[in-house]
Amino acid sequence: MFDAPGPRFRRRVFWVSVVSAFVLAGLVALGLRQFASGGELDAVRWRPYLTWPVWRYLLGGLWSTVVAAFATGVLAMAGGLLLALRPNRFTRAYAEVMRTVPVLLLVYVMLFVLPSFGVNLPLFWKLVVPLALSHAASYAVIFRAGVDSVDGGQREAGLSLGMPDGVVTRFVVLPQAVRHMTPLLVTQAVSLLKDTSLGYVVSYTELLFNGRVLANYNGLLIQTFIVVAFIYLVVNLALSRLAHRLEAGRARTAR
Amino acid sequence: MSLVLEGFLNTVALTLLSFAGALVVGLVVAVLRIVPVPLLRGVGAVYVEVWRNIPLLAWLVLFVFGLPEVGVRMPLFWTAFTAIALYEAAFVAEALRSGVNSVAAGQGEAARALGLSFRQSLRHVILPQASRRVVQPLANIAIALTMATALAGVVGVVDMTRAAQRINLELAQPLLVFTGVGLCYLVMAAGIGFGARVLERRLG
Fold it and tell me: Could you give the ipTM of this predicted complex?
């Protein structure tokens, strides 16, 4: 959006950089001082996070998070596919409701309502079922958009070559649709992984819940949750990077 | 019954205030991400990646239980507001940025060829076209934010979802209570959708 910078502009960029670097350093220093004043930066409070038992406990939580996210993903994608393939009044209404009702409300229904009707699922499913119900609607929207993004001429070309409808869908439309959908699927995977943190409410021993247990046990609240947040950050960033890598690889082979 | 009203009002207030806050912070972050100063662009990118890759519930727990320990004391409602606004700001920033990027590069080049400065081309060429395109994504963020305010109930704010759960314990009329609350969310989302369509028509 800008021309190649000339000398005057480059000078201005330099000075803006210097000033903002100072402002940034000042803000960080201020934040650190606030933390240090409460003793939160003392080495004693961070040392437990250099020991293996603590990490084993947190990584165990991460494993449960991944398992729950994976199970939810499989169920939600299957549901999304069903919804996307049959666009009728019911599926549209379902998607609309799920797009606006908080997952937490569904979780509460699982926790407090269904047991009084005699439906009492194990903890794992009390987390996974509401998440899958909600995310299925998101997947349906993504699948529909992906299929719609493929130019209609592609299908027609396939049909005019004498391919049966199923073959056109499988070998012409879907490969292109999947390529268009990949960025959205990654965003969805990240959002799904984040949503499993509702295990905190359900008492399913995933990462955030384990963080709570740990903080209650050792009293290091801030440190524990900063470490937990950091784990989420690393895992989700890795997920995005991996998808970009795959994307780049496929773009090369497609050319 | 007053609990229902309190929950409903809290949810509405939290939604409106956090969305306003997210718009302001998101606008600043989006500007940081497109200015020609590499350092500021980096700051914007780090903000977006850090906030949107960590669950909102983790932020809420950290803010509500963590901030008092470092000497930052705020009423519970405003702590939840801060966390939600800062979290959604990352999504707002991305929506605004992709709105600006969606305006064809030729438009900017044409503006510069006519001798408009950076600020003029942004003001008269890029932003009018981008503003129309960001309405729908921003409406989606507003709806997601409405749902996200339910998480404030987990850390103690009496919002609509939390109120439903409490009332259900007393009334033991689960179907009525939860369907009613679900309908409230639907109505709020429909209101946001309607507002977005009106706004889009006015800008179009």
Answer: 0.88
User: Is A225–B61 a contact, with Cβ atoms under 8 angstroms apart?
Assistant: yes
With respect to residue A45, please indicate whether it lies within any of the assigned structural domains.
Answer: no
Task: Say which CATH number the domain at A148 has.
Answer: 1.10.3720.10
Q: Which of B38, B112, B147 sits opposite A3 (nearest CB)?
A: B112
* Domain contains A19: yes
Whether residues A135 and A217 fall in one domain:
yes
A132 vs B11: CA distance, rounded Å:
25
Residues of B in Cβ contact (< 8 Å) with A109: 174, 178
Please list every residue in chain B whose beta carbon sits closer than 8 Å to the beta carbon of residue A115. none
A–B interface: beta-carbon pairs under 8 A: 147
pLDDT for position A255: 45
Q: Are the C-beta atoms of residues A107 and A198 closer than 8 Å to each other?
A: yes
Residues of B in contact with A204 (CB under 8 A): none
State pLDDT tens for residues A119-161.
788 889 999 999 999 999 999 989 888 888 888 888 889 889 8
Angle at the Cα of B27 from the Cα atoms of B24 and B30, rounded to 5 degrees: 150
Enclosing domain of residue A13: 1-33
pLDDT in tens, A224-249: 999 999 999 999 999 888 877 877 76
Q: Examine the pLDDT at A111 and tell me if it is beyond 70.
A: yes
Token output for A248: 């780049």
* Interatomic CA distance for residues A43 and A49, integer angstroms: 10
Decide if A49 is inside a domain: no
Residue B118: closest CA among chain A residues belongs to which residue? A2
Enumerate domains of chain B plus CATH numbers. 2-203 (1.10.3720.10)
